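request received
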Amino acid sequence: MAAKAQALESATLAERFAATRALSRALAAPLSDADATIQPSPEASPTKWHLAHTTWFFETFVLRDHVERYSARDARWAYLFNSYYDGEGARHARERRGMLSRPSLGEVLDYRARVEDALLEALPSLPTEATELVELGINHEQQHQELMLTDMLSAFAENPLAPAIWQRGARHEEETAPGGRVGFAGGIHEIGHQGSGFAFDCEGPRHPVLLHPYSLDQAPVSNAAWIEFIDAGGYRDPSLWTADGWAWVQANGIAAPLYWSRDPDAVWQRFGLDGLRPVDRAAPVAHVSWYEADAFARWAGARLPTEAEWEAAAADLDPCGGNQLDAAGAVAPRAAASTGGLVQMFGDVWEWTASAFLPYPGFRPQEGTVGEYNGKFMVNQFVLRGGSCATPRGHMRASYRNFFYPHQRWQFCGLRLARDV
Amino acid sequence: MAAKAQALESATLAERFAATRALSRALAAPLSDADATIQPSPEASPTKWHLAHTTWFFETFVLRDHVERYSARDARWAYLFNSYYDGEGARHARERRGMLSRPSLGEVLDYRARVEDALLEALPSLPTEATELVELGINHEQQHQELMLTDMLSAFAENPLAPAIWQRGARHEEETAPGGRVGFAGGIHEIGHQGSGFAFDCEGPRHPVLLHPYSLDQAPVSNAAWIEFIDAGGYRDPSLWTADGWAWVQANGIAAPLYWSRDPDAVWQRFGLDGLRPVDRAAPVAHVSWYEADAFARWAGARLPTEAEWEAAAADLDPCGGNQLDAAGAVAPRAAASTGGLVQMFGDVWEWTASAFLPYPGFRPQEGTVGEYNGKFMVNQFVLRGGSCATPRGHMRASYRNFFYPHQRWQFCGLRLARDV
Amino acid sequence: MAAKAQALESATLAERFAATRALSRALAAPLSDADATIQPSPEASPTKWHLAHTTWFFETFVLRDHVERYSARDARWAYLFNSYYDGEGARHARERRGMLSRPSLGEVLDYRARVEDALLEALPSLPTEATELVELGINHEQQHQELMLTDMLSAFAENPLAPAIWQRGARHEEETAPGGRVGFAGGIHEIGHQGSGFAFDCEGPRHPVLLHPYSLDQAPVSNAAWIEFIDAGGYRDPSLWTADGWAWVQANGIAAPLYWSRDPDAVWQRFGLDGLRPVDRAAPVAHVSWYEADAFARWAGARLPTEAEWEAAAADLDPCGGNQLDAAGAVAPRAAASTGGLVQMFGDVWEWTASAFLPYPGFRPQEGTVGEYNGKFMVNQFVLRGGSCATPRGHMRASYRNFFYPHQRWQFCGLRLARDV
Amino acid sequence: MAAKAQALESATLAERFAATRALSRALAAPLSDADATIQPSPEASPTKWHLAHTTWFFETFVLRDHVERYSARDARWAYLFNSYYDGEGARHARERRGMLSRPSLGEVLDYRARVEDALLEALPSLPTEATELVELGINHEQQHQELMLTDMLSAFAENPLAPAIWQRGARHEEETAPGGRVGFAGGIHEIGHQGSGFAFDCEGPRHPVLLHPYSLDQAPVSNAAWIEFIDAGGYRDPSLWTADGWAWVQANGIAAPLYWSRDPDAVWQRFGLDGLRPVDRAAPVAHVSWYEADAFARWAGARLPTEAEWEAAAADLDPCGGNQLDAAGAVAPRAAASTGGLVQMFGDVWEWTASAFLPYPGFRPQEGTVGEYNGKFMVNQFVLRGGSCATPRGHMRASYRNFFYPHQRWQFCGLRLARDV
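response:
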């Protein structure tokens, strides 16, 4: 895997741009125009919108701003495909993205090709300021690739016919998840991004943090463990939950991870992009909210790790390893064999941490409109670490900070237990 | 026109079935799979759903119940395409119809063909009870044809690109709407359907009503008159509105008919299936709610007619005349020349009446599940009469009772003023 | 009873004014300042607000407008105690009436005394126009007396301690409700108010209506019959309900009349102003919505009467008879002995009719602000007839039209079955 | 002031219990039964409820659990006056506390006296475990004293008559707020409670934290500075706000601190328990949400301090100093003279920090039902430090962690700016 990461890193910007764009196309390949148009909830966008928005990002911040004679495909599309950049003016309401049957998927794919051609042609003569935006655009599109998969899943999960978009590949699977713990000493550690490679603004500045001795479980919490939690009445005991978590459970009738259902024999099934399948007992649990993760940890007599604990433990591991997204297909968390140490820190499931998403000491957002990227979301959300089976390989870093609201669970989110030692 | 109606009536059931089915297909012809999939609001369904639901109606109540070896296309589709028949079991939530990217438009069209073939094959040997259901199914599909057009309009109106689905046909237009009144004597009149032709259950029983002398305006209220109402502050004066109407105006910021906007020169535009166009001053106003119609009438020193007044006045007019739906295209209300008497009683716009939709004396719903057709909606709605430019020609009758909630206005609804004399 | 009505009618205006004002005071007597301040729902107002609003009505429309040197108690109170008269300017939000801990109950009672003194002093020299407004104000206050009782009940029903405000008086009760029917011929009848006595504007003009032969049940539907309906699964069978009614049942978990609960032995109790008591089987059912009344009638193979049918049947009965409000106390519907004919047409429970509340032919609202009295509510509501145990005796007429939304049931509303014959 | 704190600490438990109970009574003294009953919002409780709930706390956790023959005043009251302890069973819905006109304020005051007598009698013989609960109960009641004042303010602010509950005391006021900054070195500091005095569970364990060099403003942000922010368009510029903050501003039309309004001359007024008064320019701004505090700090080129920064800076200051609650009256933040160093760290306004309310390393909730005290709220809230003008003097500590949701602002919440140095 390390060799693969190496290869990814040494590719030219043009090659990485082209590869990223191709992967997005491949992800959309099995979808009809209608599949790519519908929006299952305000928080999950249509595939077509993702395809167009990531293109708008390159068109706006690179081509419009840095390529002299470039003229936009359609001036009105900026209104449609701006996501949340107030600096770029008014925009179509997020919760009405699913109303855009026009432009069609075909038109959006043409738009992509047009922008790709213009960008590849301009690339050799772009100033550094602009190539940095291309780099940002690639990383931005990789984030949307993960969202494309999770939003697609959310859309198809609404369909009573439970369509399978991809076949499930044959694969060897472990019977049980590794059950050990790994201890870490306390003391001052540095966290946050450093060095010359790409990182999002919120990953810095690198700074020292003080840790207390702790352990992490070798592996994320498994589906088998989650079923134990259910069977033990975990969803019915308020003493395990925060007040807001309990209110959320009550108001929404929550009793299992998202996409789980019982078949007529009461066996747990989960819906995935490969259709309805029995739950893999040894695989990490996915599609649980922070509220659920926190309650599970309390039930287990443990806690969630802080993001600093997680990052310190992951610092020397290969962020390109594990079960991440290499090609279009029916991604899912997988069981892993024990290697004695931490497994699945990268890939499989994002791991909820105990840390609210807040600025690091000395954080300053990037200048200009792209500075709206992360800073304005630093309230009410929790940090997740490590990437998932839907994260494009090469996108991840130990310092990477993902964030979602504590009730959200349509991403591949799971957890790993931590303990004071 | 009367000749045309004659022709419609004398066609065989098979011919009328085939023609109705063909018109639905033609209406959907300009739509992409995505266009046909999206749902703009809980009350407006996707075109694909209309196409499938009208087919499910024939499949269920005729083929399943009356044709021995018929096997359903897909047993799970009944769950998707039942509208509101509690007697037919559980069904997909109405407000989530727009989530059904599968089956595709193509699959739904195949489903239509399959059911049409089976029905036409079975038709010669069906018992009367079943041919009556075919007749009901044709009328049912005609209703959905109108909804297809109005729901499409509602969907495209959400798109900031304001796409035109059909070109506007060339046509001669009058400059002003006829402005006279026609008086009617009071006394006992019979209303309600009678005779051997088809009618919905709610149109009967035919019964006497006592009318007081009244007049009706020759023509429906025009767009020009509506602009006067706007300019006179009609939307800002609570004394013109019912309490519920005023609350609706305030809560929704209502200041013009649905789909109206001002261009940069403050000229009123309206969005239609032919795109954004200047408002036709002489044409009947459309897309106004009962609340608006009632306020306008009060402002004009008049009132809405009761449904009995309307029906008595329309009894001798040709229900197949006027501007109704003959073929797929960009329907819209049109200006009419004065003929001295009432004009546009049929076609152009549904006319709100002062009558709540309630059962006629002696009303009994039809037996069985199809008996859920109308009776269960007899509360909280108002009667509209006369059909619109989107009503398939041949579907209308003087006794026809359409009904909507007083805040709804995505149909082609307008009004005609009445007065005591 | 007729003698009593006679007495009421012959009393002078001043006497009736004083008696009405005294009854309101008596109704509030058992309440603390806090009891009189709280508001259980947007539709039910605090007792203190009723006491002040009815006073504001006299102060505004009589004293301010017709008594030269009258100065208002506090100019700011108009903002607090205007109910819904847009013509009188802005006002405190209806749903925040329960926030007015000041002015206190004592201050409001002082305000009442001040206005009463001024009005009684001015009365002898008031012009007819103003004495008519005093008459209107008396009738207005009587309406609020009923609301005071029903709103009080609604407020105390929120209290888990189930406080009894009044002791229940001893009384003889029948064991069963009369079970016969009374038939009526069809033909042209006149309905609506006529003559010189007071009536609200919506009761006229008097006009002919055409009736078809019908019967009415001798007595309103009893609690015993309603328990049968519950036991027969009436609340769980969608085929008995209108679509809107069924949606209301589902959304609110409706399974019994308002204020009903089962004691530990599953015996039905009802909460009243005399506390929690077993349901009286022979008494008319109360606190049911139009939706419930309509579903019950369908279940019973009957229907609700139209308001014209009801009025024609009631025309010769004594509107001052029956179980109506004579003095402050724990009102409740009572069982009645059969007399061979219709019983309990007046008093006990308001009877839901099949008629939407709409204007009579030729209806014109009164001029000026008081013209907002009834006309602006003529949409979305149903007519109820006959008054209840909470209606002040002397207030009722055969032509009296009360109206509520079909889901509302905090009034003493019941029903009487009608049938075509 | 330090002498005063000394005195408070050396008082016996019985004396402090009695003094705390007396202060609650004094706070309620100017209120009528109705004043004490109404509830302005789900988050703000009636005074009567606070008076009863704090009593229920002693009755339940001390008398019921530790005093043998104690019998509860009314077994049903536990249902009414439990706040959120799931371990104590079902309870009255929080948002319906304003419906409890019974028991009356008088009955609640009797209940208080009864429990006080029983507790003072039992106190000498209570085991340590129980006296610790008395200590907790005193601190619990002090928290509710602050809520009583802020909830009262919230209730009276609903009244268009703007009643003044207390007269404003005469006092000397500064003209401008101190404008300097105080710098602090970084390094490892200990925070969290230590020692033998009382503290809430969430204040521990004491633990080392690593700080970076920083400065704090001498004084909290003043009203004058806030008016500058308003005038500079701070409430209309999305770039100053977090995404959630901006959404909150838009959805609620926020344009000034809570309780602020402009008089006819556009001069800012604020409503307080002493009525409507001009805003004190030199006093700390109060009644701003975290969203507003965060946006203001960004506008000022500064940031909010972390709670560790705040606590390290406050460690050596007198927590009993400053403008805190000594006696019932119209509390309000006050201007302070500069002393060269930090002013107003304790008292005047709670200061929003940049820290989410999360458990300290090694945090364990207390055993038993009282363990629900703080731990279950550790999500979605931000920490505030330092107490306010409504905090009973003697209740505060440098380690004290208050917490509210980022949109809440009915407390006396302000902010102090921090900067990296």
